């Protein structure tokens, strides 16, 4: 017998004793409506003017489908790569003391600060077949610039700080005694990491993944330089939208945007649910 | 398992936290490390667990030098002051963790682990809470989960760092009695740290009194209370009063008069007299006694504490008087300690 009622489906989280629940909730809703909901509704409404058949034609157009595939595919891969290496970078920055640590720590934020176009141009010069890195990869038959691989690299660059900065504070918070407790109980270092440390970091890692992924899907500036933008191969959805705009085809542009919006929203929602499920268990 | 700490020194960045500490712990003994904050209790406990490496000296488990064994191999149960529970695991998973991480050959089956965990939770009186997470427990309950978790690996030695430090007096007393019972039932060699002397004296077979990185005295509660071997122990354990005295020809003198206590073997010179405030004999007339004027008096439970000013140097000492004693402000009181000890002044 437990004394608490079981979590019965969906309900409001009980407001705490700290006053202001009503006020802050009202403010948040108004703010979100103004900043996010109204523009997005405008977007959907605009694309709705197309009518269902036209919308469907644009949505299933091979070029649109390809562009969406490339955008979401590369963003997912880049976010996955960032999760692995970003977590390692965060770990090293927190756990080890070495000369140059502060410099590296500051460097992590550079992708935040750099105008994305600058990043795109820099990466393209490096990875072009005559560039420093590109010329090393070319003999191996690996082409980076002007391929989806180039897009992935640009998105890894852009997304790294999201993972590092969400995971880092959680690693800092890890209680050393918890690791020591695991060791006295006989856990090897590997078991301590996989069974104790990683589960504790998982929610932060998922958040970092979501942020890096969302950023990657919407990224434009850095990608268009390195992607080469060949339709069906390395053309991303945001670029396709811009192209439609330049053709004064506003309806098509908003239609593609709406599709991106829906897919992104569903994915982020799933990630969030995943997270609240794992959070619930830590209390 | 016997544990022997042999001439261990521990430095942190050149700062010596322990100087040349030696200690023999018998198998099945319940030992308390008692000392003021910063005296090196936690450091000694962590050295035994293998969480720190000694700068010098060695620690033996039985006949074997434990220095070459990793923490994992030492098989000690360590209970941290702040519990250090795994917060993403249920109570049952916390307790079973030590069994679950064993290598395949010695790992019990999942059902057996669950059975062991609930058995231990019974022992620590937490049955029914298996499914809770640590965040859903009270402090005392977490403490008991930590203890059950440490005992699950059937440790050779159980080490507890201020196990009841964060709990209120009522719960502390309860858990204290209960720890003694568990110790008697399981027979683990147990070392626990505390800076509560009542806890140490009541619970432990032997008490290790520490100060400034050294062991001052090791003994039973009676030994450390009745025959302290240093001014520090006299002052730290129980209540004490002290008075500067002079040794002359085997007699103790306060200022210019003998006080009727003899120390036949002591050399002449300055010394310090220690006694318990309640362990004094009041005298009517004084030939060979300590006499002073009452300067302060306060009621403590069933007795009265008075502060006396002694002699021309106005040394203050505290003694205990029966409630009905007519000692008033400024009145004169004469007494002689019943049980006492002198420590010669250093140098
Ligand atoms: N990791 C460390 N680095 C540097 N100094 C340390 C470290 N751990 C302990 N010390 C020092 O060693 C001395 C003994 O510390 P220790 O933690 O053993 O004291 P303690 O007796 O457990 O005190 P408390 O009752 O306050 O817990 C202290 O002066 C402390 O500052
Ligand atoms: Mg301590």
Structural class call of chain B reads alpha+beta
> What's the mean pLDDT score of chain B?
89
The quaternary organization reads as: heterodimer
In CATH, the homologous superfamily of the largest domain in chain B goes by the name: P-loop containing nucleotide triphosphate hydrolases
Bound small-molecule species: adenosine-5'-triphosphate, magnesium ion
How many individual helices of chain A?
Answer: 13
What general outline of chain A do the C-alpha atoms trace? globular
Which structural class do you get from the secondary structure elements of chain A?
Answer: mainly alpha
Stretches with pLDDT under 50, minimum 5 residues of chain B? none
The CATH superfamily of the largest domain in chain A is MetI-like
Number of domain modules of chain B? 2
Estimate the helix proportion of chain A, in percent.
over 70%
Written overview of the protein:
The complex is a heterodimer of chains A (283) and B (347). Chain A is an all-alpha fold. Chain A has helices spanning 21-48, 52-60, 62-95, 101-107, 110-113, 116-127, 132-137, 148-173, 176-184, 189-218, 221-227, 237-246, 250-280. Helix content of chain A is 75%, strand content 0%. The longest helix of chain A has 34 residues, at 62-95. Chain A starts with 20 loop residues before the first helix and ends with a helix. Mean pLDDT of chain A is 87; it is low at 1-8. Chain B has 347 residues and is of the alpha+beta class. Chain B is built from nine helices and 20 strands. Chain B has helices at 41-49, 71-74, 91-100, 110-123, 139-151, 169-186, 197-203, 221-226, 231-236; strands at residues 3-12, 15-25, 30-34, 56-61, 64-65, 76-79, 157-161, 189-194, 206-211, 214-219, 241-248, 251-254, 257-262, 269-275, 280-283, 290-300, 303-310, 315-322, 332-337, 340-344. In chain B, strand 16 and strand 17 (303-310) form a beta hairpin. The model of chain B has no long low-confidence stretch (mean pLDDT 89). Chain A binds chain B through residues 1-2, 175, 177-178, 180-188, 191, 195-196, 199-200, 281-283, and chain B through 49-51, 71-72, 74-78, 80, 82, 84-88, 97-98, 101-102, 128, 131, 133-136, 149-150, 152-153. The complex binds adenosine-5'-triphosphate and magnesium ion. Residues 41-42 of chain B line the site of magnesium ion.
């Amino acid at each position: 017998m437990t004394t608490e009622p079981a979590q019965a489906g969906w309900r409001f989280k009980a407001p705490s004793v700290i006053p202001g629940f009503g006020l802050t909730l009202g403010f948040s809703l108004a703010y979100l409506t103004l900043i996010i909901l109204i523009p997005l509704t405008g977007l959907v409404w605009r694309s709705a003017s197309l009518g269902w058949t036209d919308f469907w034609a644009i949505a299933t157009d091979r070029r649109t489908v390809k562009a969406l595939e490339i955008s979401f595919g590369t963003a997912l891969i880049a976010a996955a790569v960032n999760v692995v290496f970003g977590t390692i970078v965060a770990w090293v920055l927190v756990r080890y003391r070495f000369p140059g640590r502060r410099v590296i720590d500051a460097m992590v934020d550079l992708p935040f600060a750099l105008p994305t176009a600058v990043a795109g141009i820099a990466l393209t010069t490096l990875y072009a077949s005559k560039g420093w890195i590109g010329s090393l990869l070319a003999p191996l038959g690996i082409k980076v610039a002007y391929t989806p691989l180039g897009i992935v690299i640009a998105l890894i660059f852009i997304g790294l700080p999201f993972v590092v900065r969400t995971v880092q504070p959680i690693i800092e918070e890890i209680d050393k005694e918890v690791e020591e407790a695991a060791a006295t109980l006989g856990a090897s270092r590997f078991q301590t990491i996989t069974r104790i440390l990683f589960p504790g970091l998982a929610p932060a890692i998922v958040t970092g993944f979501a942020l890096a992924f969302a950023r990657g899907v919407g990224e434009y500036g850095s990608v268009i330089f390195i992607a080469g933008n060949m339709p069906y191969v390395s053309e991303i959805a945001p670029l396709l939208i811009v192209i439609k705009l330049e053709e004064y085809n506003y309806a098509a542009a908003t239609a593609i945007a709406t599709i991106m919006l829906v897919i992104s929203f569903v994915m982020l929602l799933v990630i969030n649910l995943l997270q609240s499920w794992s959070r619930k268990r830590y209390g | 398992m016997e544990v022997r700490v042999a001439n261990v020194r521990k430095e942190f960045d050149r700062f010596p936290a322990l100087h040349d500490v030696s200690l023999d712990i018998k198998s099945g003994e319940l030992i308390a490390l008692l000392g003021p904050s910063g005296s090196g209790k936690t450091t000694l406990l962590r050295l035994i667990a293998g969480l720190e490496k000694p700068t010098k000296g060695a620690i033996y488990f039985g006949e074997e030098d434990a220095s070459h064994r990793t923490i994992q191999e030492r098989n000690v149960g360590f209970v941290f002051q702040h519990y250090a529970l795994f917060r993403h695991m249920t109570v049952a998973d916390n307790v079973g963790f030590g069994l679950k991480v064993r290598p395949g050959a010695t790992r019990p089956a999942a059902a057996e682990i669950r059975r062991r965990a609930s058995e231990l939770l019974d022992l620590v009186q937490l049955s029914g809470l298996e499914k809770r997470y640590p965040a859903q427990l009270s402090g005392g309950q977490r403490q008991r989960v930590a203890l059950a978790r440490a005992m699950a690996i059937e440790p050779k030695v159980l080490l507890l760092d201020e196990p009841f430090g964060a709990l209120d007096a009522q719960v502390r007393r309860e858990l204290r009695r209960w720890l003694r019972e568990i110790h008697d039932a399981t027979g683990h060699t147990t070392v626990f740290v505390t800076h509560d002397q009542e806890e140490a004296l009541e619970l432990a077979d032997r008490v290790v009194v520490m100060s400034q990185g050294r062991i001052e005295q090791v003994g039973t509660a009676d030994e450390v209370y009745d025959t302290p071997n240093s001014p520090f122990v006299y002052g730290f354990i129980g209540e004490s009063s002290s008075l500067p005295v002079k040794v002359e020809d085997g007699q103790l003198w306060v200022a210019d008069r003998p006080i009727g206590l003899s120390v036949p073997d002591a050399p002449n010179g300055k010394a310090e007299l220690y006694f318990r405030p309640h362990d004094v004999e009041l005298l009517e007339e004084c030939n060979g006694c300590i006499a002073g004027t009452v300067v302060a008096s306060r009621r403590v439970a069933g007795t009265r504490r008075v502060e006396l000013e002694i002699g021309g140097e106005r040394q203050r000492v505290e003694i205990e008087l029966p409630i009905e004693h007519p000692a008033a402000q400024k009145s004169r009181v004469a007494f002689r300690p019943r049980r006492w000890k002198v420590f010669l002044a250093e140098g």
